[in-house]
Amino acid sequence: MILATKWLPHTLPSLQRPHRLKGETLLDGAPVRRRVVVRNRRTGDYIISTVTQDDGKFEFTRLPEQNLATPYIVTCFDDAPTGFGNAMVFDHVYQVDDEGNPPQT
């Protein structure tokens, strides 16, 4: 079993806060529904979470601005009653702005 996340480029701009994370959860290469939680890696503080669509896609927009000193840790959980998959963790994740630029220092 392979659970992976593929980060996708963003197409629609957010007008007030352009900071975003977008991705897709996959199991053995096929999209799956998962709970996705984003936390501040340094403090463990909760940032945002969602449950993906059946196509595995998720998007967080209008996030507070992030800098390189505050990376995120993103965890994808299998919450299905018959779920047997382990959580998948992505460390040192950074948001991008509408132009695809990473956070500044």
Care to give the gist of this entry?
The chain has 105 residues and is an all-beta fold. The chain has strands at 3-7, 21-27, 30-31, 35-40, 46-51, 57-60, 72-77, 88-93.
For the structure shown, list the relevant keywords.
105 residues; mainly beta; Immunoglobulin-like; 4-stranded antiparallel sheet; globular
Describe this entry's structure for a reader.
The protein contains no helices and eight strands. A hairpin with a 2-residue loop joins strand 2 (21-27) and strand 3 (30-31). It has strands at 3-7, 21-27, 30-31, 35-40, 46-51, 57-60, 72-77, 88-93. The chain has a single domain, classed as Sandwich (Immunoglobulin-like), CATH 2.60.40. It is 0% helix and 40% strand. The protein has 105 residues and is mainly beta. Residues 5-15 have low confidence and may be disordered. Strands 1, 2, 3 and 6 form a four-stranded antiparallel beta sheet that branches.
Topology readout:
Blueprint: E1 3-7, E2 21-27, E3 30-31, E4 35-40, E5 46-51, E6 57-60, E7 72-77, E8 88-93
Antiparallel strand pairs: 1-2, 2-3, 2-6, 4-5, 4-7, 7-8
